[in-house]
Amino acid sequence: QQQQQQQHQQQQRAEQEQTNLLTYILSYLTQLSSSSSIEQTLFTTLNNKPSKIYKFAHLLAALPVVHDGIAGSHFYLGEEPSEYEYGLVNLAAFLSQAMKETIQYDACDENNWDLIENRKYPLSNACGQLGQSYQDYVCPPHESHMACPIDPSMKITATTHATWYGAPPPLYCTPKTEEMPWTG
What Cα–Cα distance (Å) separates residue 9 from each residue in 23, 68, 164, 177? Predict the structure, then answer.
């Protein structure tokens, strides 16, 4: 029983350290946002305009959620308050990838960017780009509980898309029908 109490106390201390770490990082980021124009410099598009989708306040709100974990995965911020630099470096790496993939385009859906001859965007890009088949993607075994069955009658249109000059409209996918004898 004494060993169980010690383990419980150790677990409580570890949880308190994680809370202190998260609180410290959020405090640091909040100070950073109030003392600079982070929204105007970090969350900007290729056109050098502030993103309409990605906001620093949203990042601050999401950080505790992803730090606590989603589906068994956690955003690493360090092990204890003295390691907050690890958390900030991880956050910087995440933001740089987000800038490369989405923020600069102000889009959260996949962009239609795989060109074919004569610099055209094929409708089939909605089903997969660069030789990929999105329909054939499967979850790894440890995430299979999150998989959805394929719905052959599903129709979907992306809500965002790239805004560069000449960018195609949002991706759109629907099954073939007599009225619409193509997919994509």
Answer: 21, 19, 55, 63
Q: Is the pLDDT of residue 18 over 70?
A: no
Q: How many residues does the chain have?
A: 184
Beta-bridge mates of residue 44: 50
Q: Compute CA 111 distance to the chain's CA centroid, rounded to the nearest angstrom.
A: 14
Among 163, 133, 167, which Cα is nearest to 150's?
A: 133
In this prediction, residue 63 has a pLDDT band, given cuts at 50, 70 and 90, of: very high
**pLDDT for 142-161, tens place per residue?**
888 888 888 888 888 999 98
CB 112 within 8 A of CB 163: no
Tokens of 109: 């859906």
Angle subtended by helix axes 2-35 and 84-101, to nearest 10 = 50
> Could you give phi then psi for residue 172, rounded to 5 degrees?
-140, 135
| pTM of the full structure | 0.71
Q: Where are the alpha helices (DSSP H) in 50-108?
A: 56-68, 84-101
38 to each of 59, 64, 103, 183, how far by Cα in Å? 12, 20, 13, 42
Q: What is the pLDDT of residues 100-120, one digit of tens each?
A: 888 998 888 888 888 888 888
